[in-house]
Design brief:
Elements (H helix, E strand, L loop, with lengths): L2 H29 L6 E3 L2 E3 L7 E8 L6 E8 L4 E7 L4 E4 L2 E4 H8 L1 H12 L5 E5 L1 H16 L11 E2 L2 E2 L1 E10 L2 E10 L27 H4 L8 H15 L13 H7 L11 H20 L6 H12 L2
Parallel strand pairs: 3-8
Antiparallel strand pairs: 1-2, 3-4, 4-5, 6-7, 9-10, 11-12
Amino acid sequence: MSRAKAFWLGLGCTLAVLLPIYLAVAAVIFTRSAPADTVQSGVPIAQPTLGDEKNFLLMTGPEQPETFVLLRFDALEGNLCSVAIPGETVVLVNGRPATLADAAEQAGPAQAAAALMETLDIEIDNYLYCTADRLVDLATHVLEVWRGYTDEAAFIYAETNGEPHNTITPIARKVGDIYELDLTLRNNITTEEHPLGVYHPHAEYHHIKKENIGLIEVMGLAVLPARLKGEMELLEKYILEGKDISSNEQIEKHAEWVKKFLPKYPEITKENIHGILQKEIGIVFTHVLEDAGVYKCTTEGREAFMRFLETL
């Protein structure tokens, strides 16, 4: 691999790290401008308003801006949109046409942002220009801060009895022509109730998934144990024939699960049983992923996540 290709590979990966961090921090800054309507867990939470719509232009390159991404953050709708803008895009600079890359090189990032605003007839509230080294530094900073981060209210401890708990699972991948780097926050703390890990599949779901949740699951793919293939084939037969599932030691662990979901399906046939089991396995796996997440998709979880972001 040439040095140029290596540079852009690293740049693309680290770019994906900066985007969520920058937007989250920006969201904190902008929401602070409005007074808090409610206070929960001692953290003021401002309600989104129509004014909480921001456009950002992110520019990066080794020495001059060469990669351009336009981001729109809509707090009221909870939406984030992004579009990559080619450097060859023709914009108006003082009324004269030029490429966006040339505008950035000749007049600087601020002029490039202004030219894009004039050309597209939009408002750009802020712009950010970062070099590859700076992006790498930011990603490293997230890891270092997380390793030492404790939030007792969220049951997150950097260490207990000298044993460190916080780490990050990095995932580098290519989506289309864009390289992404996801940083997944992890914590391996255990309790008597959850001896395999608080942020690990809980015991009630071990009949489907007991193994660790790793980078494959974070990427959106369910990795299920091979044993399920034979167990589900046998389970289909027992359900269709009305046999006692708990009487077979190979599938007895699924008995309570089947007892809970069967009432949802008034008619179970040979034609639909396979699809029903696939659907129910997917539901269980969703709960597995919820267990494994350090920050839950709840009001409290989002507040806790924002507390971490504020430390960055």
